[in-house]
## 1
Amino acid sequence: MKREIAKYVSECDVCQKVKADHLKPAGMLQPLAIPSWKWEDIHMDFIVGLPRTQKGYDSIWVIIDRLTKSAHFIPVKTIYHAKTYAELYIARIVSLHSEFAYNNSYQKSLEMAPFEALYGDHVYLRVSLMKGCEREVGTKIHRPFKITEQCGPIAYRIELPPQLAAVYDVFHVSQLKKCLRVPEEVVDTSQIQIEPDLTYEENPIKILDQKQRTTRRTKINFYKVQWSNHSEEEATWEQEEYLQTKYPGFLLTTANEYV
């Protein structure tokens, strides 16, 4: 039972939206992958401010292979443009180290990463999509959205509703939170009218079950009622007398349908 209770609490939709995380955002720092072959991945830097040579060179372009740590030091000028550097790279680096290759080796992805998410999974969105006062006082995490595509190692495209068509649908993993259980029914809280005393009106919408309890003198009818803004799992048992007094037309229109 302890395990079932812990699982139920961890999958609570409200808790997943409101409870603060005590971990650093995932995906902010990504280690560089180890190159599989020499001169496949390089680093480069510039040493500038050097005395000008007779040929006009005043800088050194440093290109280092990440795998072997071997380096090339190419004299350059600060007035060079990108096209000149590209021609130099081909002439001084590609001509020496390049070779035809076909990468057909299996690339094992990160397993059990904190921000792991797969196509078809659902995630919560940490970015506030509201404006004005609602942005400040509303929940910071919104209802689950479906992942449709992985855009790079740490970004995902999610399926947004039509009313959010103007929002860019690609988000960094630090703005996503894995959804442990997708709620069967998601209530649109924007349609609920909040009263000044922070309450809202609820109305019965459906009868799910019926039972009768017999006392010494009378029989009392009970109805299992589903309320507006609530799912069937949150239905409550109410006395027939209470429903007739509080919602006089409800039983007349729904009791026959249930029967």
Note: The two ends are 37 Å apart (CA to CA).
## 2
Amino acid sequence: MNLKNIAVLAMALVSLAACKESSKQPKQVPNSEVSTEENAQLEEVFSDSTYQLTGVAVAKDNRVFVNYPYWLDTHSYSVVEVKDGKP
């Protein structure tokens, strides 16, 4: 077995060892701020019938952001904050 084959084998073994899940890693805990009420309802705070929205995010301080696709011809902004139902 030549040096190149040994190096490839060693790299493969190191890669496999790195993929092993470690029990030392912390487990993900559900966010305690997420509503778990069975009667929780969605509330529409913004809609845009002109453009397709491709994402929505809510910051920790409850600020709402939406993003528009970059492929629009009339592209002005990619991400906007929604305030009082308006971008």
Note: Strands lie at 55-58, 64-67, 79-82.
